[in-house]
Structures are given as structure tokens and as C-alpha cells.
Amino acid sequence: MLNLQFSDQTKPTAIKSRQRDPLDIFSESLNQQIELVKLLQEGKTLTQTKRRYVSGKRVEVDVEVRPWFWQNNDNQYLLTPRYSSQPIHINNHRSILCGPDLPSVATVLEQLKQALTDRDATLTEAIHNARRKTQWSKS
Predict the structure, then answer these.
(1) How confident is the model at residue 7 (pLDDT cuts 50, 70, 90)?
(2) How far is 47 from 66, CA to CA, in rounded Å?
(3) How many CB atoms lie within 10 A of CB 41?
(4) How far is CA 41 from CA 36, 99, 101, in A?
(5) How many beta carbons lie within 10 A of that of residue 119, not counting itself?
(6) Could you state, in order of their start, the residue ranges of all structural domains in the chain?
């Protein structure tokens, strides 16, 4: 029998080392939503340049940023944070009640930003769960 110490680690591939941290991606989106709230309070919108393909040719197009928040029938703002196209369910809740106006939405977004900075376990787990849903599954 060989007298060796074995490990289950594999050599990292170039693709894994190039992948961005999901928390950094969420942080950028969160900052974008905070900026969107500020602009909406001023009566403006936020646009982002995206690449689209028209007839096989790459074209740069300005697209409005979609808000994570909306108003319900009681005129209360609710917020559903997202990772890419997937909603992030924090503590298995679908949305967060913010309050009656846009400054209350900004306050909730700032609280999420602080929780992300502090690496809150509940939030980071919810982000990683949403990220897993965006990945292709091997069947």
C-alpha cells in the first residue's frame, strides 16, 4: 500500500478563476438600484448600454434599468432584490415592505448594502441560492 496523503482538491481551471464573485455582481446591481431611486425622485430615468444583435450584427442599445420595487394597491412600496433574472428570497420571503415613498425604498436598499458589506449570512446564502438557479444544470 502506498503511504501517501490524498486530497479531493482539483487544479483550478482558467474559467473558475475568471468568474466574478456573485456578491460583487449583486453589489453592483444594488448600487445601480440606489442610483435609480435617486434619479426617479428627480423625475429622471436611468439607462444602461447593452449589446444586442440585429441581423447578425452587434449593436449598442440604451435600455432603461428595470426597478426592483413597485407600488401595491395600498400605495406601499415593495422590493424584490434580484441576482440576474432570479429573485432573491431572504428568509423565504418573496419581497420586502419598504414604506409609502421612494426615500423609504432608498433606506431599505442602503440597509441591504450594509448587510452585504457586513457579509450577513442570511443575505449571502440567499444570493448564492439565486445564483445557483441561473446556472445550467447537467441532466
Answers:
(1) confident
(2) 9
(3) 13
(4) 9, 15, 10
(5) 9
(6) 21-134
The pTM of the full predicted model, rounded to 2 decimals, is 0.81
Q: Which cell numbers in the block locate residue 41? A: 425622485
Length of the chain, please? Answer: 139
| C-alpha span between 66 and 22 (Å, rounded) | 19
Instruction: State the pLDDT at residue 107.
Output: 96
Write the DSSP symbol of residue 93. Answer: B
8 A C-beta contact, residue 68 and residue 80 = yes
Q: Please identify which residue in the block is written with the cell numbers 443575505.
A: 123
Backbone dihedral region of 100: left (phi > 0), alpha (psi from -120 to 50 degrees) or beta?
A: alpha
30, β-bridge pairs: none
Block residue for cell numbers 473558475: 16
DSSP string, 117-132: HTT-HHHHHHHHHHHH
Residue 114 identity (one-letter amino acid): Q
Specify the pairing of strand 77-79 against strand 69-71.
antiparallel
Grid coordinates representing 76?
406601499
